[in-house]
Every structure is written in structure tokens, then in C-alpha cells.
Design goal:
With 136 residues, this protein is α+β, with helices and mostly antiparallel strands. It is built from six helices and five strands; from the N terminus they run E-E-H-E-E-H-H-H-H-H-E. The strands form two sheets. It has a three-stranded antiparallel beta sheet. A two-stranded antiparallel sheet has the order 1-2. A hairpin with a 5-residue loop joins strand 1 and strand 2. It is globular and about 40 Å long.
């Protein structure tokens, strides 16, 4: 488990829960150092987190750092979207916790293009991954 994270869960006027990341850990004027992000994500490996809505436990597997930082959709990200994805890594436990109607879908190559268009705006497209497994 990673300590010293400055992340909060808030509720908006419509009752939706949001994750607020107060500490921007991965900064860069031109590029994000994805090796630093990968090393940071290794701190989550082996941890369990619970989805509040349905009490499902999610296990973080050792594939997460590589999958998160080396995906085709990540490689196409630039600017603010790349920074958003990099810094979303600091809030993975909270993003799992507030997940609603969670599903796991194995995506085919053609679906990756659809996910790429929403990168940085909907981090849930990042989270359901092969390295996060539902525990029974």
C-alpha cells in the first residue's frame, strides 16, 4: 500500500461520487516520465481494494504497472491527457472504491480506438484491466 497520498472522495450536487487528487505527483512541461509512474504503481501490487457499491474485492496483480504505462492507448496520449492518466495512478484505490456498475470486459483491438478517445476524461476506461481481478 502506498502511503502519503493526498486524495479525497467528494460527492457532487447530483449525488455522484468524485475523486479529487490534491497532490499532482507527475509533472512535466513536455513529457511524463512513465518509468516513474510504473515504479509508483508497483506499490499497489498485491493489495486488495473494495468497491463500496457491491462489496466486491479487487486484487491488484503484478501486470498493472506494465499494462497501465505501456498500453497502445497510453502511447497516443499527449499533453494534459497524459498528465491526467499519470496522476490518476495516485488515486487507483479511490477510483476502485467509487466504481459503480463495475464490469470487466476483455477488449479487442478495434475497441481500443474507442477507449482512446475518452482517455483522460473517464478514468474508468483505464481501471478494468487484466491485472485487476475480482476476488470471490
Amino acid at each position: 500500500m502506498i502511503e502519503n497520498r493526498n486524495v479525497n472522495i467528494l460527492t457532487d450536487a447530483n449525488g455522484r461520487r468524485l475523486v479529487l487528487i490534491n497532490d499532482i505527483r507527475f509533472k512535466g512541461k513536455r513529457q511524463i516520465n512513465w518509468d516513474d509512474v510504473k515504479q509508483y504503481l508497483e506499490g499497489y501490487v498485491g493489495d486488495y481494494y473494495e468497491i463500496t457499491e457491491n462489496a466486491e474485492h479487487i486484487f491488484i496483480g503484478s501486470e498493472l504497472p506494465e499494462e497501465y504505462t505501456e498500453s497502445e492507448s497510453r502511447k497516443s496520449l499527449m499533453g494534459a491527457n497524459a498528465k491526467a492518466k499519470a496522476n490518476a495512478a495516485t488515486a487507483i484505490p479511490e477510483l476502485i472504491q467509487i466504481a459503480s456498475n463495475p464490469t470487466f470486459e476483455k477488449t479487442a483491438r478495434k475497441n481500443t480506438i474507442k477507449m482512446r478517445n475518452t482517455a483522460g476524461t473517464s478514468m474508468m476506461s483505464v481501471l478494468p484491466s487484466q491485472s485487476m481481478k475480482k476476488m470471490y
